[in-house]
Amino acid sequence: MLATSALEKISPLHFDYNGGLAHFVSEDLKNWTLLKPFFIPVYETLPECPDIFQWNDWHYLLFSIKGVTHYRMAQNRNGPWLKPSGDTLDGLMARVFKTAPFTGNRRLAAAFAPTLKDDSLFYAGRVVFRKLLQYTDGTLGTCFPEEMQPADKANVQLAAKFADGLELDSGSSLQIAALKGVPDTAHIFMQIAPSADTYCFKLGLRGDTPADGGILSFYPKEGIITFQDKILAKSLLDNIIVRVDAVEKSRRIFFWICIFTMTL
Questions:
Q1: Phi-psi region of 105 (alpha: psi -120 to 50; beta: other; left: phi over 0)
Q2: CB-hemisphere CA count at 13 Å for 58?
Q3: CATH number of the domain bearing residue 125
């Protein structure tokens, strides 16, 4: 059993980095023996809500730091645990993922979206489901589970200017491209490749004008992604390709963002 714990303070240097996962073992689930710490991530807060599992040739350890799910990977259940370059799953609005095996050697993850009240986030709210993606190097990603997406219908016919991609060059002004005739329930997938000097680009969802609807904003130089001016994530956004997978259903919006490094 793994449990969130604080390490005994043995010097002033350990005070701010004292969180770890305690390791208990038992043969009867009544009497427990404490072993040496299972994992010490070295953050300024305690790791919470651990989840450990094996998937194909890799073992994974998930834990939460201030609500955001981080993960480590190893070839052995007891480590050593490797930290991937991008070690988080989703962001602050999908908290403390727990996973379970699913059909077809897939793995589903469930988190909670915190309730927003008076500009503050509170515990619990709505459940968030993701399908885990396992890449060839063992690292993880997430996407929408196929079974939970709206049923596919005929593709919406895009205007000719969108058919083969669209390039916007606003300079120091504002340039907008709009899709018309999008159904109330729609599954939207797009790939955006910002130029090196791009300050900001935005995606407006379910709005009739640039001033309304849900505004998903990317600031490559500052490394910030926001939705309705609320910071969703902070990341290194230089030389990247952004893939946005969005579902609009009954005027509610769900989206998934993948950020890939460009090959220059």
A1: left
A2: 18
A3: 2.115.10.20
Please state, in angstroms and rounded to a whole number, the distance separating the CA atoms of residues 74 and 59: 5
Cis peptide before 194 (omega within 30 of 0): no
The DSSP output letter for 130 is E
Residue-range definition of the domain harbouring residue 165? 157-261
Domain assignment present for 152: no
**Span 192-220, average pLDDT:** 76
Task: Map residue 20 onto helix, strand or coil.
Answer: strand
Q: Give which of 40, 85, 84 is closest to 65, Cα–Cα.
A: 40
Whether residue 262 is predicted with pLDDT greater than 60 in this model: the reply is no
Q: Which of 105, 59, 101 is nearest to 79 (CA)?
A: 59
| Percent of the chain whose predicted confidence (pLDDT) is above 90 | 19
> What stretches of the chain adopt beta strand conformation (E)?
2-6, 19-25, 33-34, 48-55, 58-65, 68-74, 88-89, 95-102, 106-117, 120-134, 140-143, 186-192, 201-205, 214-219, 224-227, 230-234, 240-249, 252-261
Mean pLDDT throughout 100-118?
A: 87
Structure tokens of 223?
């490394």
Q: State the total domains in the chain.
A: 2
* Tokens describing residue 30: 């009544």
Number of Cβ atoms within 10 Å of the Cβ of 39: 19
How close are the terminal C-alpha atoms of the chain, in Å?
A: 46
Tokens of 194: 């910002």
Which of 102, 128, 147 is a domain's end point?
Answer: 147
113 & 136 share domain: yes
Please count the CA atoms within 13 angstroms of the CA of 167 that sit on its side-chain side: 3
Taking only the tens place, the pLDDT of each residue in 143-168 is: 888 888 766 667 777 666 666 677 88
